[in-house]
Design a protein that fits this description.
A hairpin with a 4-residue loop joins strand 9 (about 185-190) and strand 10. Helix content is about 35%, strand content about 20%. It has 18 helices and 25 strands. It has three domains: about 5-245, Aminohydrolase, N-terminal nucleophile (Ntn) domain (Glutamine Phosphoribosylpyrophosphate, subunit 1, domain 1, 4-Layer Sandwich), CATH 3.60.20; about 250-455, 3-Layer(aba) Sandwich (Rossmann fold), CATH 3.40.50.10490; about 455-600, 3-Layer(aba) Sandwich (Rossmann fold), CATH 3.40.50.10490. It has an eight-stranded antiparallel β-sheet with strand order 3-2-4-1-10-9-11-15, covered by helices on one side. A seven-stranded antiparallel β-sheet has the order 5-6-7-8-12-13-14, covered by helices on one side. A five-stranded parallel β-sheet has the order 17-16-18-19-20, with helices on both faces. The protein binds 5-amino-5-deoxy-1-O-phosphono-D-mannitol (M6R). The site of 5-amino-5-deoxy-1-O-phosphono-D-mannitol has 16 residues, from helix 9.
């Protein structure tokens, strides 16, 4: 939530900051702002709404200078107003700050500052934060060369909550300060310039050399030097890492929306998930970064999967696949519930968290809670260098490339593919035979091609979308491993088209949701499994008997009887381990086209943000 970008160098900061903000807009898009420091003067522009509007305001007003900070907001404290937009400036006009996170003790700090004569123009916790820096700045020795940096560091000792910040001071025109706790912050080291940002995508057009800050670290970027310290005053040697993706990966190209681009990138994302991950005899998977030995894994008698949103649906698929192929009992928890539930876990439990961004605060907290209790933790994650990737004991990178659309598509199916590979790997460590392993690997390798075939349904699904785009409600039904796909189908539809949708286990429908069924509420039934085909047929009959339209998703060998359903989507036949991935494709395409036809902002749905870094 919220994106921040800071720049210090010898070029004009404004266009660089605006470009960075555009790339971070998926993190929040309620308002945006930029502050530039030139000759000791602070030039500040804020705007309700999108970065494009801010861009017009800032660039047309000739804002220029080689030090600046900027912000795109997802509102937490205070409404969506220009006053509440960042950057915030201290009452004395000296300190400006862009903040991503939530300050939990801002009320008591505010009272303290008010008692010292401070007053506030916004409703935000961040304005309190910047004034506390200003308060410490005034207390520091005027002649100290580290006055500004020290004042930020001392302020941070009093801050409870989360922050990723970029700060500058009118009296220190050669210094940009950043710090993080709980919200991501990355420093980009460019050609005689530094950038600070919440995410690599904002830096990648200028440099691929980055330093990931850890919690409790601050950085001063001054006169071409990078100084990294902890809030406890320990000096650190920055570890410079190379980012392995290119700017083109995060560009729209010929596509109208990132979501569509990412849907069509799925065959490649699956290829990337598999690259170098099968043994030479192609009988099982192998993972470089698990940091858990085969011996240790054989001791595991339960796996707990934890995540939020779409990634939680991937966890539910894991429950079916890992139990079926590896015969290890699986539990699935919402990270936000698990972190406060104090659940008793058996000592041989392995905890696996799944997160595209690697920064989701609840998932991170669940990971930390599991580690604190001494459990081995693994992460399935798409963002190299993210907090979750760095804090887990080991893990599997998805290598799906940047996912910009707020609605997760390629990251989800890439998670499913990795889960499928993991189920194979764990299965082969236990009872799965060599021959079954070889067949399984063959099936996994076919997935990109089959997904490409499923993507050919695009035109048919677009036509179907025109027929259903005005529905008010929609029920998604599926059984077993299609149940999570029904949940995911419903989530996709509601988050980008604002149509009320519910995912349900098909048989459970009779225990309540059937009351919704009628000609106003179509049902999308995932009827792809041969072993329960007749059961799903009965569920469809029950829906049809109540006058609802039915769209069925079936595979080639098991179509529905002629005339039973209103519309039918036929996906290719495939091995059961990749069925959830294939069945997801029509769900994604249907949601996309419906949302587009309804005039919704597909890539930036209302109220949402890509990376949820607040509780
Ligand atoms: O980055 P994460 O995978 O941890 O994100 C989890 C959810 O916030 C995310 O999947 C969300 O539900 C998406 N909007 C779904 O499309």
């Amino acid at each position: 939530m919220c994106g921040i970008v800071g720049y210090i160098g010898n070029r004009d900061a404004t266009p660089i900051l605006i470009e960075g903000l555009k790339r971070l807009e998926y993190r929040g898009y309620d308002s945006a702002g930029v502050a530039i420091l030139k000759n000791g003067n602070l030039n500040l522009k804020k705007q309700k709404g999108r970065v494009a509007e801010l861009s017009r305001k800032a660039l047309n007003n000739g804002m220029s200078g080689s030090l600046g900070i900027s912000h795109t907001r997802w509102a937490t404290h205070g409404g969506v107003t220009e006053e509440n937009a960042h950057p915030h400036v201290s009452q004395d006009g000296k300190i400006a700050m862009a903040h991503n996170g939530v300050i939990e003790n801002y009320v008591s700090i505010k009272k303290f500052l008010e008692s010292k004569g401070y007053s506030f123009y916004s409703e935000t916790d961040s304005e309190v934060f910047v004034n506390l820096i200003a308060y410490h700045y005034e207390k520091e020795d005027e002649d100290s060369p580290t006055r500004f940096f020290d004042s930020v560091r001392k302020c941070l000792r009093h801050i409870e909550g989360t922050y990723g910040i970029a700060v500058m001071c009118t009296e220190c025109p050669n210094e940009l300060v950043g710090a993080r706790k709980g919200s991501p912050l990355i420093v980009g080291i460019g050609d005689e310039e530094f950038l600070i940002a919440s995410d690599v995508s904002a830096l990648i057009s200028r440099t691929s050399n980055v330093v990931y800050l850890n919690d409790g670290e601050l950085v001063s970027l001054k006169n071409g030097k990078l100084n990294l310290r902890t809030t406890d005053e320990e000096d650190l040697e920055p570890e410079i890492q190379k980012v392995d993706w290119e700017i083109q990966d995060s560009e729209l190209g010929d596509y109208e929306h990132y979501m569509l681009k990412e849907i069509f990138e799925q065959p490649t994302a699956l290829e990337n998930a598999m690259r170098g991950r099968f043994t030479d005899d192609s009988s099982t998977a192998k993972f470089g970064g698990l940091n858990v030995s085969a011996q240790e894994l054989r001791q595991v008698d339960r796996i707990l999967f934890c995540a939020c949103g779409t990634a939680w649906h991937a966890c539910l698929v894991a429950e079916y696949l890992v139990e079926r192929y590896a015969r290890i009992p699986v539990e699935v928890e919402y990270a936000s519930e698990f972190r406060y539930r104090n659940a008793p876990l058996d000592k041989h439990t392995l905890v696996i968290v799944i997160s595209q961004s690697g920064e989701t605060i609840d998932t991170l907290a669940a990971l930390r809670e599991s580690k604190r209790k001494g459990y081995k933790t693994l992460a399935i994650n798409n963002s190299v260098g993210s907090t979750i990737a760095r804090e887990s004991d080991g893990g599997i990178y998805q290598h799906a490339g940047p996912e910009i659309g707020v609605a997760s598509t390629k990251a989800f199916t890439s998670q499913l593919h990795i889960i499928s590979m993991l189920a194979l790997y764990l299965g082969r460590l236990r009872d799965m035979s060599y021959q079954d392993g070889v067949e399984y690997v063959e099936a996994l390798k076919k997935a990109p091609e089959l997904v490409a075939d499923a993507l050919k349904l695009n035109d048919q699904i677009e036509e179907m979308a025109a027929k259903y785009k005005d529905m008010q409600d929609c029920l998604f039904l599926g059984r077993q491993d299609m149940f999570p796909i029904a949940l995911e189908g419903a989530l996709k539809l509601k988050e980008i088209s604002y149509i009320h949708a519910e995912g349900y286990p098909a048989a459970e429908m009779k225990h309540g949701p059937i009351a919704l069924i009628g000609n106003e509420c179509p049902a999308i039934v995932l009827a792809t499994q041969p072993d329960i085909h007749t059961k799903l047929l009965s569920n469809i009959q029950e829906v049809k008997a109540r006058g609802a339209s039915v769209i069925s998703v079936v595979n080639q060998s098991n179509p529905m009887p002629e005339g039973l359903v209103d519309d039918q989507i036929v996906i290719p036949d495939c091995h059961r381990s990749i069925l959830p991935t294939l069945a997801s494709i029509p769900m994604q395409l249907l949601s996309y086209h419906i949302a587009k036809m309804r005039g919704c902002d597909v890539d930036k749905p209302r109220n949402l943000a890509k990376s949820v870094t607040v509780e």
